[in-house]
Each structure stands twice: as C-alpha cells, then as structure tokens.
C-alpha cells in the first residue's frame, strides 16, 4: 500500500485528507508485517469506499491511543486483524468507532485481547449500545447485581447487551423480587470492558471488624 498512486486513489474515494489515509495505511502495514493491497477498482463502489473511510478513521483513533500509551507497533495475527478491520468497516457511529479503535489498540498492547469473540460482540453492537455499556461499566460488578442508573431509552440497549452475553440480569437478594434494572456484568462483559479501557466498578472491601453480638 506504499504505492503513492493507490493512496491518492483511496484519499479521493473516501474523501479524507491524505495524511490520515497515509497514516492508517502505514499502521495497517506495520500490523500485518507486510504491504497490503486494496482492490482499487472497487473504490468506485460507494459501499466499499464508505467501509474504508470508517476503517481509516478507526485506525487513526487506534494510533492515537497507541501513541498516548507509548506502545510500539508490532505484527498482529491476520486471523484476528483482518476480521477486525472487516467488522470495523461497518462502524460509522463515533462512539462505536472509538470502541473498535480501543479494541485494536488493546490487541496490539496485549495478545490476550486478540480473541474473535470481542470482534463478534462489537459487530453486533450499535452506537447506543456502546454508550450504554460505557456509562454502566463503572456501576455494574461481576457477579453482583445492582440497581443500574437507568435513563430513558436504555432498556433496548440493555436487552441487546444481555442477549450478547455482556450483561446479565439477576436479583440483588434471592429473597426479594427486584425489578429488571438489577444487572450483572458478565465475565465476558468485564473482559470486553477492560479491553475497551472503560472505567470499571471497584468493590471496596471494608477492613473494619464487624461489631460483636451483645447477646453472646
């Protein structure tokens, strides 16, 4: 992709400045460990060009995260990288693009995040889902139900996140039938939230001794 004429063609097709296009292409080459090619003739197709515009924007966001964390570029297995780039091409919403960028940066930093399940979940999430997950992450614990700070319009995203296995519904107390706003962060959801760099809930363990029972 170091071919300048192809970069020019891509720049024209996706309607972005040359600099971010070239930056994205160089990063993708670094992650692949070899030059990559784009079917230049297909860039005339509106859908194909739209997908590449999204990918370029996401890769540039990932580059910003890598630079901010001082993480060196290294080769990422194509079995993870190529499906990620494929899925990222369908993300136009800014917050969803940010999620894809964070996942890519996390995968470069730590091979433990190079799992296809994270890609599958993001492919099925909407921008609203990404925003709700980001907002709820600081409040929901693994294996601990809480009354989530719901807002109007959250219910559908919560339902989708439950269906994806990111969140789980439960009761704070098995003896009490609380409403459906009590949710858990599933193990998958916790791992995904870590990969996306979301603020996570922290369980504070008290060091105080419980009071003695005066009847004993």
Could you report the average pLDDT, rounded to the nearest whole number? 82
Q: Could you tell me the number of beta strands? A: 3
Q: What order do the strands of the largest sheet run in, or round the barrel if closed?
A: 1-3-2
List SSEs in N-to-C order. HHHHHHHEHEEH
Distance between the termini: 78 Å
Helix percent reads 40-55%
Major sheet: size, sense and barrel closure? 3 strands, antiparallel
Radius of gyration: 21 Å
Shape: globular
Structural write-up:
The structure is a single chain. With 216 residues, this protein is mainly alpha-helical. The protein has 2 domains: 6-123, no CATH class; 125-202, Arc Repressor Mutant, subunit A, CATH 1.10.10.10. The chain is built from 9 helices and 3 strands, in the order H-H-H-H-H-H-H-E-H-E-E-H. The protein has helices at 4-14, 18-32, 46-69, 78-88, 94-109, 116-123, 127-136, 154-163, 187-195, and strands at residues 146-147, 167-169, 182-185. A 3-stranded antiparallel β-sheet has the order 1-3-2. Helix 3 (46-69) crosses helix 5, helix 4 (78-88) packs parallel to helix 6 and helix 7 packs across helix 8.
Fold topology:
Elements: H1 4-14, H2 18-32, H3 46-69, H4 78-88, H5 94-109, H6 116-123, H7 127-136, E1 146-147, H8 154-163, E2 167-169, E3 182-185, H9 187-195
Quick recap:
It is built from nine helices and three strands. It has helices spanning 4-14, 18-32, 46-69, 78-88, 94-109, 116-123, 127-136, 154-163, 187-195, and strands spanning 146-147, 167-169, 182-185. Helix 3 crosses helix 5 and helix 5 crosses helix 7.
